Amino acid sequence: MTPAGDDGRTAKGKRDRRDFSSDDLTGIVLEEYASTSEDPRTREIQTALIRHLHGFVREVGLTEAEWLAGIRFLTATGQPCADRRQGLIAISIGSRRAGGG
Q1: Which of 18, 23, 42, 62 could form a disulfide linkage to 57, CB 3.0–4.6 angstroms apart?
Q2: 16 closest CA partner among 30, 5, 27
Q3: What confidence tens digit (pLDDT) does each residue in 65-81 have?
Q4: 40: domain range?
């Protein structure tokens, strides 16, 4: 990793990941993500998802083991369940219908 300057940023202008508290994590992730999507609407949706997921982790006090179990669940759910539908689509349809989408 590039040494951090006095302002906590690396020579490439990014924050040194070793220099943050858990309270700063959401902002750091959003800052890193900001340049990855060129489409403003996609960026809006994905940054909202990041904020909500980080809020969920804080709200329920998720442990590392629980986080890993959740990642495994989402990975397995994302595998094709049938030729025409993935599990993530199936579990997200209820939320789309509830929201009128």
Answers
A1: 62
A2: 5
A3: 999 999 998 888 777 66
A4: 1-62
